[in-house]
Amino acid sequence: MVAVKGGLSGFGGGRVREETPDAGAGRSPGWRFGWFWGAYAVSTFGTYLAFDAFALIAVLVLRAGPTEVALLAAAGPTAGALLALPLGPWVEFRRKRPVMIAMDLTRGAALASVPAAYALGLLGLPQLVLVTVVVAASDITFTAASGAYLKALVPRAELLAANSRLESTTWTATVLGPTLGGAVVGVAGPVTTTAANAVSHLLSALGIRAIGGREPRPERTAPAGFRARDLLDGWRYILGDPVLRPLFLNTVLVNGLIMAVMPLLTVLMLGPLGFAPWQYTLAFGLPCAGGLLGARLSRPLVARFGRHRVLRTAGALRACWPLGLAFVGPGTSGLVLVVAVEFGLITCIGVFNPVYATHRLEHTAPERVARTLSAWSVTSKAGTAAMTALWGLLAGLTGPRAAVAAAGLALLATPALLPRSGRNDSAARAVDVAAGAGTGAGGTAASGTAAE
Length: 452
What we know:
By secondary structure, the protein is mostly helical. The protein is 70% helix and 0% strand. The N terminus and C terminus are likely disordered.
């Protein structure tokens, strides 16, 4: 969900070399992170402002039916993930900042084609599908490049602070974006929010360019040229690493199971339980404030209890909440139950995500970050799509409530896949405590240009 970042040394095995883009340029890392954070914030708010815009365009503008809307939702991201497969190895041996700028410009241009085609009376469903493919592939590639770039940009002691700030930004956008976007759609239509999203990516490209400095070209450790086996390098590295492997399996399963029940809850709450659309929106919008709270708590918790304990505790707790959704009933009590469960779940996710992102990057060798993040993102998207389809079939056989309960029970087994204590825990603990003592719970030296 978030872009990830890290320190100057990897712990995942292989040859690790120090990476310091912009070294010697005379500016502090915090100043550059401020530009990166600003670029991330504007593109994230643009994305959430246009939340579900394509589905709304398909229904309200193109008069598409349920099958066409489902095709739009599934085909675009799936094809985009497949298209992004060869891009991970390609990104690894290129300067990351130009790749990030190119992906922002690509996303912006693709999204801008929608209002342009609408104004000319040429907009159709095939174009929407094509744009979702391009945007999905660009998203995965941008995430891979930004993780590798920020791993070198942010000092190790400030990595958790940077992740916490990006996570806070994500949840703030989640709370505000869809609400503001809904108001804009009501006044000017869904095409307008798509245009705003396109502009946000163009502004993000300008922010990344403003980081400045010179980024050295990565050293190639393998023969030049693309090989078919390079497609699987990310997965080989993840599955061969005893720290990354359980974290990978855990996050893919948890994310997939949580997202798989969302369509079922929509059917259950808006159908048999009789919730009004505004109640449904409130039930899942209000708890997003818990993500912001969790992101702000993650750093002081790590400074006090240690990264490993927070990772395992928050990771286990986030798996316990969804089972409660199987007991939702009609009326106010049912609404309160959903809000409470979702608030607890999202708060735990808000604590877990920055710590998990930090842990993942610190255990990934710098020369393998792009391939690793690309493989991780592709698997997460594919896993979520597969589990959503599987739970849809299960709900057809057992009913939505039983399928939601089955997902909740399956989630209870996922904490067993969280990483055990490792050989680098003492070093990580020292860094976390030093970082917490150096900047305090409420601020960070990672960005000198903005306050929380």
